[in-house]
Automatic annotation (TrEMBL):
Pfam family, one: DUF386
Stated name of the protein: DUF386 domain-containing protein
Cross-referenced Gene3D superfamilies: YhcH/YjgK/YiaL
InterPro entries: NanQ/TabA/YiaL, NanQ/TabA/YiaL_sf
Source organism of this protein record: Flavobacterium gawalongense
Leader sequence residues: none
Length: 153
């Protein structure tokens, strides 16, 4: 997991061949606050969508304690403040249902090791080994999520 601000995004370009394209997409869309919910870009190995929602309680958010096998998530806070729960996948031992290959998601019932908050202009990168509980917070939260096809080295 990586947490940072857009100003530092270029530091991460070398980690994955698609990070540069993903962050250039974010930086090239200065009007994200006005973007409507839904898919805003699809490329060969990237899919970007905007989501606006009302923050939920920690208990509700933890019901979606999730990770992905085939995608890396870059989640960028457009407005509001979003709290996430996090735990390394290797420490999660209580599955919550089966893996859904169509949605590339699996859930766990474990408790997070920590919680952190993103504010406007900040992003988090979740790799397949990062189990995360999104959407926790109060009030309206708007974010951009970019799904990047995960490629093993």
């Amino acid at each position: 997991m990586i947490i940072d601000t857009l100003e530092n995004a270029s530091k991460y370009f070398s980690i994955n061949p698609f990070f540069k394209e993903a962050f250039e997409f974010i930086m090239g869309h200065s009007n994200l606050e006005k973007a409507e919910d839904g898919t805003v870009g699809t490329f060969e190995n990237l899919k970007a969508f905007v989501a606006t929602f009302q923050g939920v309680s920690k208990e509700t958010g933890l019901s979606k304690f999730e990770c992905h096998d085939k995608n890396i998530d870059i989640q960028y806070c457009i407005s509001g403040k979003e709290t996430f729960g996090w735990k390394p996948r290797q420490k999660c031992v209580i599955p919550n249902g089966d893996y859904n290959p169509e949605k590339d998601v699996r859930f766990f019932s474990d408790a997070p090791d920590l919680f952190f908050e993103l504010a406007k202009g900040q992003f988090v990168i979740f790799f397949p080994e990062d189990v995360h509980a999104p959407m926790i917070g109060e009030g309206e939260i708007k974010k951009l999520v970019i799904k990047i096809r995960y490629k093993h080295k």
